[in-house]
Task: inverse folding
């Protein structure tokens, strides 16, 4: 498990566990949004602010999906295969997956993604001035 001393609930696994919390905080910083620490807050925030199809909205959705997926996969690898990866390794994996998907959405070049966020994700080549 990700947190050896915590009951494994979705709230603990995805938000309260230090391992997952570190990943969520870093991802929140990288996409310049407030950190939320519960499913309810996440769904509320996403429902109000991520309705458009702008690149930033797509980036946020992809980031959250990749984060959930990678935390769950890390949990499974630890339980079933006894394989352990660091938070930084998971963050690099999330960045790689999101960048690859964003490059699909970002063609042709556009200016709807703030440059500071584009740089965080290695997408500065798709942002025009």
Result:
């Amino acid at each position: 498990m990700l947190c050896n001393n915590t009951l494994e609930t979705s709230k603990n696994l995805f938000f309260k566990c230090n391992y997952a919390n570190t990943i969520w905080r870093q991802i929140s910083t990288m996409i310049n949004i407030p950190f939320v620490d519960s499913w309810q807050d996440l769904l509320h925030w996403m429902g109000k602010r991520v309705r458009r199809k702008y690149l930033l909205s797509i980036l946020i959705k992809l980031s959250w999906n990749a984060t959930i997926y990678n935390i769950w996969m890390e949990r499974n690898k630890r339980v079933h295969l006894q394989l352990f990866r660091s938070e930084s390794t998971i963050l690099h994996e999330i960045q790689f997956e999101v960048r690859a998907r964003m490059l699909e959405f970002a063609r042709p070049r556009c200016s709807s993604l703030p440059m500071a966020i584009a740089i965080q994700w290695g997408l500065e080549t798709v942002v025009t001035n």
Notes: The chain has a mean pLDDT of 83. The helical segments are 10-16, 18-30, 39-49, 55-81, 87-105, 115-120. Residues 10-126 form one domain. The radius of gyration is 15 Å.
